[in-house]
């Protein structure tokens, strides 16, 4: 599976202009997405740092049945520790690469974040933190079955 990842933060009340955003009321997301709409994700209220990304990639690598490529952007959370663990993941068949700096247009997961924020979530989903967390999880879990992204074919 070729996939990409990106962390994304969705703030409580962010979509509503009539009420201010509440500090600390957010859901953070990390996802791997393939062009055939296979989505592996984690949502959390914690900050997504290198430790969390590495734990996610460790879990992801355990279920691999064939060599798999993951392409990450150059976010600070995707550096350092990840580069140190690459050799261990390669033994399991997981190959981690990084996009060049300032090439976000190559990161297909950016389309996922755009669809999640502007199409799949609604203003009312931001009214309560628990509802927002649930709706984000629900939408990401539906990618590949009820929700699909039509990617342009590779040439």
Describe the protein:
The chain has a single domain, classed as Ribonuclease H-like superfamily/Ribonuclease H (Nucleotidyltransferase, domain 5, 2-Layer Sandwich), CATH 3.30.420. The protein has 4 helices and 6 strands, in the order ββββαβαβαα. Helix 1 (50-62) packs parallel to helix 2. The protein has helices at residues 50-62, 81-91, 109-120, 129-142; strands at 2-5, 7-11, 26-33, 39-44, 68-72, 94-98. The model is unreliable at 1-21 (pLDDT under 50). It has 155 residues and is of the alpha/beta class.
Indicate the CATH architecture: 2-Layer Sandwich
Order of helices and strands: EEEEHEHEHH
Overall shape: globular
Can you summarize the main beta sheet? 3 strands, parallel
Query: Residue ranges: pLDDT <50 for 5 or more in a row?
Result: 1-21
Structural class: alpha/beta
What is the strand arrangement across the widest sheet?
1-5-6
Any chance you could write out the topology, listing elements then pairs?
Blueprint: E1 2-5, E2 7-11, E3 26-33, E4 39-44, H1 50-62, E5 68-72, H2 81-91, E6 94-98, H3 109-120, H4 129-142
Parallel strand pairs: 1-5, 5-6
Antiparallel strand pairs: 2-3, 3-4
Helix pairs in contact: 1-2
Please provide a brief summary of the model:
With about 160 residues, the chain is α/β, with parallel strands linked by helices.
What labels describe this entry?
Nucleotidyltransferase, domain 5; disordered N terminus; three-stranded antiparallel beta sheet; alpha/beta; 155 residues
